[in-house]
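Intended use. Records like the one below are meant for learning the mapping from a protein sequence to its folded structure. Do not use them to infer anything beyond what is encoded.
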Amino acid sequence: MKVTSLIDDECQNSGFEGEHGLSLLIEWNDKTILFDTGATGRFVDNAEKLGIDIGVVDVLVISHGHYDHAGGLERFFQENSRAQVYMAEGADLNHYSKDPGFPYRYIGIDKNVLNKYNDRITFLKCKTKIMNDVYILKEFKNEYPIPKGNRYLYMEKEGMILNDTFDHEIVMILKGDDGLVVFSGCSHRGILNVMESVNEEFGIPVKAVFGGFHLMGRPSSGMVEEEGDILFTAEKLSQYKIERIYTCHCTGKRVYNFFKDVVGTKIKYFSTSDVSII
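Structure written out for the chain above:
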């Protein structure tokens, strides 16, 4: 399995562009899967520089209904005429962020794009097998706390603006002969809850995890996750005996450094244009 970061908040290699967003390309078992599209179409530009043709992507999975994961949807559709797109039911709702003292800011998916390409989008209600050995998990346990940054995120339902429940968040699992590889866009439901749910559903070892853990807090509001909570999450995550953890996007470098102190060489920050062979 080959995993390539097409876009991330961090970009260490010259010639590529980063942005607040996430897009990962997975090449596995003669199939090409795209996980999220970042905030704009820049992921395509980076792909071209890496010699990757987005037109050959077989399936696109959108982890949740926020612009930094689905903002590149239209560019994707322009480049790819065949792939089916999967996202959770509710990903098409209006989603907002709000800092204290400021108005609501729309962070959802462009409705014009959803309407224009509706025949290529499938909304999932529950756990679904979308390809051979490729699963989408939508329902998660609630044993551990969720990220504090969620308190600044909202959804509009039946004309009311409510705290976001993140029922529109999904996780992708690839099931190989030697274990599972888990892809989580932001882990708004909590990365520990994600891992507990994956263990309960599949009952086999997790070889690797890719994704953001949404533990950077809300720096614009002066709110960051407490060090004790970060270390607790890192210590618990290390107990799952995951071989490799590739974190990125909304984890943030501050949290990554805390994790590295606990997890050691098992964890790597996966930035724009990075490649990993699993």
